[in-house]
Amino acid sequence: MACGALAEELDAVLSGRGWEVQERYDSAPVSAHPVRVRKTACYIVLAVLLNDQNEVLMMQEAKHECYGMWYLPAGRMEPNETILEAMKREVKEETGLECEPLTLLAVEERGPIWIRFVFLARPSGGTLKAPQHADAESLQARWWDRESPALPLRARDILPLMDLAVRYRDSPSHPMTLPEEMPCALICQRLLATFTNGAGDLWVLLSAVGAPHLPVSARTTSPCKIQNSIQVAACRLLKECCLLPQVTVRVHGVLGLQHLGKNAGKSDGVCFNVLLTVTQGGQSTQETPPELHGESFQWWKIEESSLRSRILQRLSSSSVVPIHSY
């Protein structure tokens, strides 16, 4: 086993740097085709900006269906944009401010055809949009203390995101994580699937097809597969490769993600690097990992102490970007 290459891949994934997909999928539906932004997939970017008084940046909607309501700066990505370019553009268009992204706060999804990337960012320039500068993007922007005056919100789904941003700024729950600009044709997840026992031993699941590597599972963007979320797809692969049916899979969250978007129709996909744990029948007393089907996958026992410690630390504190599937 090429332990050096595997350690390098693990280090890259744990550090949020990502690892090239190379169109190598260990599980992919027959109907999987290259993603097209705004055609077969909808990516939403949303930013939470806070000032020194813990006020949050809000924008007033100009769209007919929610005219005059308030919301966080957000919008759909365009073809040939990176995720961060889209986020900065939406903040500038809707609030007048330029911003610097700090970290990905959360990933929200309704299957692979609607994914929202939530960021914490800070203002870095520009001028707050005043009512006299209203346009088709927004009527105005303002800083809001979340209490008074009470703003009529377009939707209340942003309130937990504001709370999450304040908590993260006060006490970061995961390392600062931003998308890596790396091409990917499909929406997929690279799985850092782990098993630990009572003695503190740690195993990581590998694909043994070709050079051993972390498994990569692709998803279809067919509307009939809207429930094919990150969690569902990850759990499906693990349960398919494990011999025993009573395997429990816990998805902790995202260690990082990869997207480029600069070659529309060829690099519009996203690879989520996902951390999860596997237990046998919900029990934590097993000394060895679940037995696997065939020879396509194998368990790799992590012997190197610093690498094992890094993985165990991320597991014990759930130091990952949370995923919310609806």
From TrEMBL:
Domain (Nudix hydrolase) ranges: 37-166
EC number: 3.6.1.58
Domain of life of the native organism: Eukaryota
UniProt cross-references to InterPro entries, sorted A to Z: Nudix_hydrolase, NUDIX_hydrolase-like_dom_sf, NUDIX_hydrolase_CS, NUDIX_hydrolase_dom, NUDT18_NUDIX
Any one Gene Ontology BP term: GDP catabolic process
Catalyzed reactions: 8-oxo-dGDP + H2O = 8-oxo-dGMP + phosphate + H(+); 2-oxo-dADP + H2O = 2-oxo-dAMP + phosphate + H(+); 8-oxo-GDP + H2O = 8-oxo-GMP + phosphate + H(+); 8-oxo-dADP + H2O = 8-oxo-dAMP + phosphate + H(+)
SUPFAM superfamilies (UniProt xref): Nudix
UniProt entry tagged with the keyword Manganese: yes
GO molecular function terms listed in the Swiss-Prot or TrEMBL record: 8-hydroxy-dADP phosphatase activity; 8-oxo-dGDP phosphatase activity; 8-oxo-GDP phosphatase activity; metal ion binding
Keywords: Hydrolase, Magnesium, Manganese, Metal-binding
Cofactor(s) of this protein: Mg(2+); Mn(2+)
Family label: Belongs to the Nudix hydrolase family.
PANTHER family, per database record: 8-OXO-DGDP PHOSPHATASE NUDT18 (PTHR22769:SF56), MUTT/NUDIX HYDROLASE (PTHR22769)
Function according to Swiss-Prot or TrEMBL: Mediates the hydrolysis of oxidized nucleoside diphosphate derivatives. Hydrolyzes 8-oxo-7,8-dihydroguanine (8-oxo-Gua)-containing deoxyribo- and ribonucleoside diphosphates to the monophosphates. Hydrolyzes 8-oxo-dGDP and 8-oxo-GDP with the same efficiencies. Also hydrolyzes 8-OH-dADP and 2-OH-dADP. Exhibited no or minimal hydrolysis activity against 8-oxo-dGTP, 8-oxo-GTP, dGTP, GTP, dGDP and GDP. Probably removes oxidized guanine nucleotides from both the DNA and RNA precursor pools.
Protein name: 8-oxo-dGDP phosphatase NUDT18
Organism field: Gopherus evgoodei (Goodes thornscrub tortoise)
